[in-house]
Write the C-alpha cells for this entry.
Amino acid sequence: MQAISLQPVPNQTASMLVAGQLAGINLYTMSDGNLYIDILLNNLPILTGVLCLNKTRIVRDAYFGFIGDFIFVDTQGSNDPQFAELGTRYQFNYVSASDLATL
C-alpha cells in the first residue's frame, strides 16, 4: 500500500501517478456530514459520488480500467472517515493490484 497525503479540510482535489496511471480524486463533505469521493483516470471520471467507508475498497472492479484501488483506514478504530482527522487518524491509501490479493 502507498499512503496518499490528504489535508484535514472538508473539500479537496489531488492528483497522483500510481501504477503508471494518472489518478485524480475529488473528496468532498456533503450536508449529511459524510465524505464522498470521485475517482478520475487520465482526467476522466470513472466513479463519482462514492461514500467513503472504513476499510472498504472504492473502485472495486477492473471494469473501470483502473489498476489497483483506494481505501480509507481508521488507524484508531473502525469509524468511517471524517474530514477533520484526514491525514492523521484517517489514512488514505492506494492499494496495488498485487496487494489486493491480501485484502
